[in-house]
Each structure stands twice: as C-alpha cells, then as structure tokens.
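Let's do one together. I've listed all components of the complex below, 751 residues spread over two lines.
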Amino acid sequence: MSNGDRAASTAAGGQGGNRKVGEPVSYKPGLGMAYELSHLGALEAEAIHIIREVAAEFERPGLLFSGGKDSIVMLRLAEKAFWPQRLPFPVVHIDTGHNFPEVMEFRDRRVAEMSIRLVVGSVQDAIDAGRVVEERGPRASRNRLQTTVLLDTIQQHAFDAVFGGARRDEERARAKERIYSFRDEFGQWDPKQQRPELWNLYNGRHRKGEHIRVFPLSNWTELDIWQYLAQEQLEIPSVYYAHRREVFQRDGMLMATSPFLEQLEGEEPFEATVRFRTIGDMTCTAAVASEAADVETIVAEIAATRITERGASRADDRTSDAAMEDRKREGYF
Amino acid sequence: MELLRFATVGSVDDGKSTLIGRLLYDSKSILQDAWDAMERTSKSRGDEYVNLALLTDGLRAEREQGITIDVAYRYFATPKRKFIIADTPGHIQYTRNMVTGASTADLALILIDAREGMVEQSRRHAFISSLLGIPHLVVCVNKMDLVDYDRAVFDRIKAEFTAFASRLQVTDVTFVPISALKGDNVVDRSEHMPWYQGPTLMHHLEEVHIASDDNYIDVRFPVQYVIRPQSSDYPDYRGYAGTVAGGVLRPGDDVVVLPSGFSTRVAGIDTCDGPVREAFPPMSVIVRLEDDLDVSRGDMICRPQNRPTASHDVEAMVCWMSEDTELAPGRRYSLKHTTRSVRTVVQDIRYRIDVNTLHRDLGVEGLKLNEIGRIHLRTTAPLFFDEYRRNRLTGSFILVDEATNNTVGAGMILHPTD
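Okay, and this is what the predicted structure of the assembly comes out as:
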C-alpha cells in the first residue's frame, strides 16, 4: 500500500501490520456502513482520548519516560494526540543511576529529536543528600528507592497528573487498577478506595497535593506493544535485540554483569546471545536467551512464549504473591 | 483483527472463575509461570484442583477472603479476535462494580448454574446488562455435567430466561449449555450434548457481529481539546481534537456547533498519520472548520438537521455508588457528560427499581449504595445529549461529589423532562 492510499480511510486495506491506524478493517457496502478499527487502532484511539483528556483537565501533567518499550509507545501516542502541536508537558525520568547506558543514550537522543523538556529525578542525588539509604550486599537494588525520588519529583514540580506506561496484563494487582489511579498526598494507592470508572468518562478531580497516575496503556498487552512498535516502525534501544553479552546465572535468570551488581560465589560470568524483554535497572532486569534480532522476530517470539514478561525478567516481583500490590500502595509506578 | 470487550457476570459458585480460566487456558493465554504460581498457592491452601480464581483475584484482600471484590481485566486472543474481559463480581453488594465493568462491554456473559436454574441473581444480571445497553447477551448454562447433560434442564432455563428478557430491552440473546470444568462447548464441541446444534462459546465470541453496534447515524463530535500550534510550520492551524461519539464525519459536511449554533463546514479531518476522508466512532481525530469560530472544549459538533437534545432538565436512570452518602432531592453534584462538566441538582427521585424483581418502589426518599432509580436532574448549563439507548457515549454521565471528589453516580439518560 502506497503512502497516498493511507488517507483513503474506506479502502478495503491490506491485512494486519500493513494497515495504518484509522483505517477500518472492512467496509461492506451491501450491509450499509460497517466501520471497524483494527484492535491496535481501537487501543490507540482509546489512549489518545485519555491523553487529551488529561491535558485538558489538569494543570501540570508529566509523562514518565524511561526509554523502555512501553514508554516509547506512550511518547508516540502523546505525540499523535497533540500533533501538529508540541507536547504540552515535560517528560520525567526517575534515574536510578543503574540503567543500561544504551538506554540512557537512547533517552537523550529521543528527547532532543522531539525538542521536549526532560525532568530527571536522580536516585544518586537522593542518596548523596541522605534522603534515602542505599541497600547493601550482592542483592542490593535501587528499585524501592525510586518511589521516594518519584514522589519528591512529583512534589517538587507540582505535577498533578503523571502518565505511566503500566499495563494490566503485567501483574494481577495492576489488573485491578484504574486508568486514572488516584493518589493521596503521600502518593499512596488504596485499592479499596478506587473510584468507579465508567464509559470514557474519567474523573480527574483532586485536591492540592494529591495527584492522579494515568495509565493510557492499561488495556494493551505485551504483544500489542510489540505489534505497535512494528507498525509504527519505532526505534527502540539496542538491548531489546539479540546481542552478545557477558552474563551470569542467578535464581534461574540471566543477569548482565555490571559494576552495579556484585556476584556471589559460584556465579561465574560467561558470554551468551541474549536480549532484554523488559528494561529496568541492571540490578533487577534479567536477560532472556534469544536470537531475535528484529521486531518481527520478537513479535513471533512473544506470541509463542510460555513465560510472562515479569516472570522471565523481573527479580523485583519474585519476592511474594503481593510484591507489586505492596509497592504500589507505597507510591511505586 | 477486531477487539471485543465483554463482561463476565456471576459468582464463584456459578463457576465463573473456572470458565475464565478455561478460556484463558485453552487459548494458551495463561503462561507457564503464572500457572505454576497458582498451583503452588492452591496446594499450600489445600485446594483439590488448581484454583483458577487465584488468577483473577489480584488483591491480597480478595485472596484472603476468597471473593472477587473489584473488576479485574483480563486479556486473551485467538487468531480471529482480541478479547478484553471485564471480570465483575456477581453479588448484590458489588452491583456498582458490575455496572462499571458493563459500561464499556460489547457483550455480557451471564452464568447460570444448571442445578439451580434461573435465580434472583440471574434476573439482576440480565436487568443490569440491559440497563447498561450491552448489545449482546450470552447465557451460559453451566455445570451441565452435574445434570447428566439433560436437554430438558437447558430448555427449561432457556424458556424462563427468555420470558424474563422479554420485559427488558434485550435484542440479542444466545444460550450455550456448557461445563466449564470439563470443557464441554467452551472451546471444543461437547460429545455429551448432541442435541445442541448451536455454536460453542468460543466460536460465538469469535463470530458475533459487533461492527454495527456503534452509532454511525447521528454525527456527534464533542470537542475535547483545541489544537493551536502557533509554530512557524503551522502558524494559523486551528483544529478541534476529540473522539467521534456518533455518526460518520466527512470533509465538506455542513455542521453546526453547539451551544453557539453557528453553522460552518468541515474543512478537513486530520490525524498525525495524515488526513482521513471519514471519521467514525471511536476514532480520535482533529476536525478543522472552514470558518474561524469561537469553539472550545465542551462544545458539540453535529449536523444541522440532526442535533442532539439540548436541555437543562433530564430524566435518567442512576446507579448510586457512594458508601457514605445517599442521593436525595436537593443534593448538588458535579456532572460530567461527554467533555462537558456542569453542576447539577437532584429535583426528584421518581422511583427506585428493585433490581431483583423489576418492581418500581415509589415514594423513595433517597438512593443508597448499589441502588438504581429514575431521577430528574436540573443542570446549570444545557447538556447536548441523546437517549442512552441510542448512543451510549452521548447518553451517559457520571456524578461527582464536590466535597470528596469521588465518583458517586452513573447515569443513563432517558429523555428531557417535559
């Protein structure tokens, strides 16, 4: 399909990934008007509606952008929501100082390309200032420290709405969370006091000091994200693709060797072909053995996988049945 | 590939979790590590089978109490469709959660235990599905294995439900005899019920025609956000961003903007991916108008010969959702309808409906948590609405308590008050 055809919204378009968003899946003249969006088109329309609604009703939104795949999709959707205008809000990154260098480089480049403002909340600065205390030992992670820095950043910049890329299919506490997730002045989530959320009518009312976390990707699955990245031909950090890397085995997972992660006895490093299915801190994000070197192969790999994204790669969720619920109550992403 | 959103209604006793587990498991949507975790927890609690409810009961309180409290969203796909399940609790004390899950559903899946037959709860579920305007109902008569796959049992429940549904505004009901535990007629056709010639549940979910469910007749475009780049590339660009709530909008169409009433034409319909020749629900687009008018958020763009009702006074069915306060005449709320927020005062409660019997209780002084009634509201500014039956997006509203900021009511508009 040529570029010129993209605008023809009622053309009985090609199949699957070739179709641009906004074109109906089928048009059946004999049946009168039978318009439908593809599933990605419907999810995209829903997300854009939510993003615009927040921009219209809140004074100071911010969009969490880590350089990970979900936040790349978020940023693209926000770009689409306001085109041809620039983003009417800054992007925010909570930098643990333990990120993949490839991802940081990607973050800075993307922000420069879009000429948007980047707000960084630094965990290292918070440690240096004595706001938080660094965990010690080979299993130390800055994951939990992010919560304090996130809440400090929200307060410092007086954000009243913060977009996040969380999805309900990631984890079962998330499956219960609203698209507009109300947070009190301590940033806490109370699963028992959630506001009913009906139709496409979102209630963003809040008092000063309170804020709303907004999750426009709530209804997207991991596969949807990858299909969308492919459809939109979005650039992603190189660590998502298969590459050679020095890793070691811990708790059945492959961890990248890095200055941030101390190895225990018997954890011998070796080289392997891996990729990252999720990107968080180098201390708690595991790699998966994979040869997938392009988006199409990754889509096929995700479609066939038998292990969840978090189960495969996130050490932080393995603590207990309610690890995520507990962290969310404290104000986590 | 199309997206189908459906709500499942029922309680643990009806085998709802087992059914969802079956749909997810048979479509390979429960992944191995999630299954292993469930198996571990089930074993540690001494359950005989792997307890599929653990999959959907995501909160600590739910797992501890063994109940579903809140709506849980689940996702699965087959080669034909993507599905979003809003798994809603069936008990009367969680009616508001069912209403929430049902508000965006294209289809409701109601479970009936074959041994129990049509019970009070089934009638309530059918009523709420009808009230929320869900276009398609599927009644799964479950646990057929426990009634020897007896056709007479199925036929009796079907007749009883059909008789009750005739009192509701339900257009499309499908009945499927199943055993969620054994898998009969869920994904694979049952060998035990040769007398049943209809589709399996999964087949029906994959094939049910949903493409005509949105309103493609009455053009309704609530303005959500004004796009004005004021940049050197787009110095004079002015577009109105929003989600099409009804009808099909095309460049060149004559339109009128409410409340001002100014007439103009659609100059173009834009998206970041390029202009489109048609915009239809639920597309998010930018509409440009030929004339430079004062248009802002909350305004409604429609066709001159097909306008929504404009009124300060509306009659509506309301489901009350507040634990702390009652809805009562004289109370004031903030009301959000499309992209428009206004203040409103309750003029009158016409009646409360008994959700189990459909009986109308007159002379009611207030509506409590989970109660549903018909009310008359007056608003400070006019609303531009359609009957909820005709358009779920322009016929719905929420009520917000201005003291607590909580969402306390869900409303479905019937018509303007005379």
